[in-house]
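Continuing the batch. This is chain 6 of the set; chains 1 through 5 are on the previous pages. Same settings as before, nothing changed between runs. Recording input and output for traceability.
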Amino acid sequence: MRNILLIVIDTLRADHLGCYGYARRTSPHLDALAERSLVLDALWSASNFTAPAFTSLFTACYPHQHGVFDFKSRVTSSPVYELLQRNGARTGAVTTFGFFGNLLRHIWDEVEVVTSTRSFGYSKNLPRDVTASALAWLDRNGQDGPFCLFTHYDGPHTPYRLPDEFADRFDSVDLADVDPEFVRIMFPQDQERLSAAGVRPDTPMLRLIKSVNRGRRQIDPATLQWLRDKYDASVLYNDHAVGDLLSGLDDLGLADDTVVAVISDHGEEFLEHGGFSHGQINLYEEVIRTVGIIHDPARTDGSARLEHPAQPAHPAQPAHPAHPTQPAQPARLARPVSQVDLWPT
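Output for chain 6:
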């Protein structure tokens, strides 16, 4: 078995990357990777928000099978993890927020949460911190046999938190025309730390999103374009952080023996069907179509695109529903994941 570097960028829409046809230059490093990789054109998330989507990723089960629909529930076994163990692979994870520690507690090995080690919640530096921690893990473990390292980038997730060099990169509307409440809540650039007086910093944001999705608040065209501009700036920022990770992988001498997979857990809505953000009742293309770029250094035939959906031939059987105090036992795949050939011939 060779190494695996699994990179997941949160809330990333495929149609906002150049390699998927986007006009803006939001993803130069991912586009360069795609030019020598397999690009999945028909990849959809198992859910429209993080907890069930990631559990499906690590168990190869649909949400109705693994039963995880919130950040308190979790499964206690994973056929994906067991397959890696049987092949002698060490597993590690570098993630942003603490809930991953719960989701992965029984189905993965070492998990570092950078908001508890290198950074803090909603830091503008999170993507860079993930890259730094991932490279440190690779430096410690990369030469000790095969590995599978999972890295989670917070991606273009609201609130948009950006270093100055990325903050205004795609601005296309006059700030005076933008709803000031959206600016204050969705783009709090003037604050270093968002927490204050025991109030969760994301509470006003969730209230604002809910008011839009329930029809109590409108987003005018200028504000909507401003939100798209900040989303794209966040895509570019995370793209640069991933580019630094890929460069570091090469500097460590691991690139030639490491399969790199870049995916996203779900997308984002910008009123295409009346909704904003994600995690609501909608399952439209914009919120469940995801990125899929797989680079196998052993293949020398250049890039390829897979236009039809790919999944194991025999889906897993339903598992018992998960419960916060009694997690589900995910079902076993009838066909090993290692036998699923994605590359078109």
